[in-house]
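To whoever is covering the structure queue this week,

Two jobs came back overnight. Logging them here so there's a record in the thread.

Job A:
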Amino acid sequence: MASTTIQHISYDEATRELHVTFVGGAIYTYYDVPAHVYRSFRTAESKGQYFQRFVADRYDFRRHAA
């Protein structure tokens, strides 16, 4: 199912960085994210709900300039 808020997610296992691109174009990197969080995020029925519950406000992050 396509997400109305999350456009793309990717993960760098070596650095434990989660990269999230939102539908509006904002790109964020979340640091020290466990691989199981990424795997669950990737397979979640609602990406937006999963993000709000298990990623947002739980990990340090950086917003990238557009």
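Job B:
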Amino acid sequence: MDRRRIFMKTLFAAAALLMAFTMARTAAAQGQGRGQGGAGGGVQNQQIGGQIDTGGSGAGGVVIDAAGVLRLRSVRDPRLGAQRLAEAHANLPAELQQPSLRRKVSLNRLEAALGARHANGLFATDEMKYLAGLQRIEYVMLYPETGDVVIAGQAEGFVQTPSGRVIGMRSGRPVLELQDLAVAMRAFPPSGPPTRRIGVSIDPTPQGLTNLQQFLAQVGSRATPRDTPRLVEGMRQSLGKQTVTISGIDPRTHFAQVLTEADYRMKLIGIGLEVPPARIRSYISRANPATIAANALLRWYFVPHYDSVRVSVDELAMRLEGDGVRLVGKDEVVTDAGDRVGVAITDRAGQAFVLEFTKMYPQLAANEPVFAQLRNLVDLAVAAAFMQKHDYFGKAGWSAELLLDEQQYPTQLFHVPAKVETAVNAIWRGNRLMTPIGGGVHINATKAVLPENVQQDNEGEVRDAHDEVALDHLAPGEWWWD
């Protein structure tokens, strides 16, 4: 094999790893109603045709324009100022601001309270929008005798950051959002089949991959490290914009925006364009291009991951235990026609990266809000799948009519993520050029609650937590308590 062929094989083997990395979110501009996007932080939607103002924050780290093209927000949140915290303290009830190890929220009572406000022409309160400050779902519990479906977990008072994220006043961890819960429940409704998979994928087009091969063939053995800017720009132009695909949920929701940003930020960490606030070595710092198969296209995916889903013997309560999210890898090759085919490739650098990313996920989520938001979405999806599987709706006599109806409770408030511009990180190892990678998020919530993945509550701890909840003290209109 001559020098030119060796160089071209090496260059393509690395360059074919290229993917696009500029995700985004839409933030509907304050007061502009459905479908109006902007680069601002929080969404403060006004009442639309008698519908409820959902409020809620955007994904925070990415933006999306009206044409559906996504890009990274270049400005990070500054530290929360004393004035912003003081305003949050002044506006929230004192009891809501107190940290709680196990705050309880009755979902059916919350919906009833929301409906009562709606009937009087009032918007949802911040307590409703942010589920009384819940930051994780630890328990899902059913009380057939009172018709209550209750979720419980850690909670605290909350404040909105300048970029629009809503986080705990003390911990800085994002809170759960009612609009995301509504999206999860629509994926697993009281009647109808469950959603097979919720996910996002960002992919080059077959034509883009073909164009990339043609560009690399033109480069030949003339390229050197001095040509890196030209190579990077050429590869970016060859691939063009890439396609964002949202599956299982409406792409116009906050749920979809968070999935997209989390996927994007994971890729940036993998290719060495973002330094994470956790000890995670990038893939590109580990990889040896000599061991990567020609035409390789590496793919990484977030999937649900719990130490256990523990269910009481009577199936009236479930507990989620663990970190909720795991990163996994999948390897493919690219054919001359631009098609992608799965292959059995052992990539040690990729394996090491996904294992370390998963191990350090709790630390990452504690310091980078979007990864905590992703974990919240997985919790919500698994909780909704569990409620559907065990017919909590029917047993509680709760139809969830308002939350399941887009006309009564709108969640489709964002521009659709459609295309991304290509961003490239190029690193030379000797005469070998590396430019990675791909990714995605797949939430198969029904798999998490299959019998083989569920543990019985043999010690009775989950049942005890269920029985400790008292509902007879709740006043009319009251839907959360500690």
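Note for Job B: The chain is about 35% helix and 20% strand.

Please reply-all if you pick these up so we don't duplicate work.
Q.
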